[in-house]
């Protein structure tokens, strides 16, 4: 019974933090892609 409670609590915590994690991953990917575009083409950097 205790394991079920701990599993439920952990699941709720993970679900609460999931949007923040995906937002950080998205920002890192955008930064990485824009950096590669910048170095791949001199016209991309102004």
From TrEMBL:
It comes from the Eukaryota. This is Uncharacterized protein. It comes from Gossypium armourianum. The lineage of its organism: Eukaryota, Viridiplantae, Streptophyta, Embryophyta, Tracheophyta.
């Amino acid at each position: 019974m205790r394991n079920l409670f701990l599993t439920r609590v952990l699941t709720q915590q993970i679900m609460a933090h999931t949007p923040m994690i995906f937002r950080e991953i998205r920002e890192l990917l955008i930064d990485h892609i824009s950096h590669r575009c910048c170095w791949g083409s001199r016209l991309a950097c102004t």
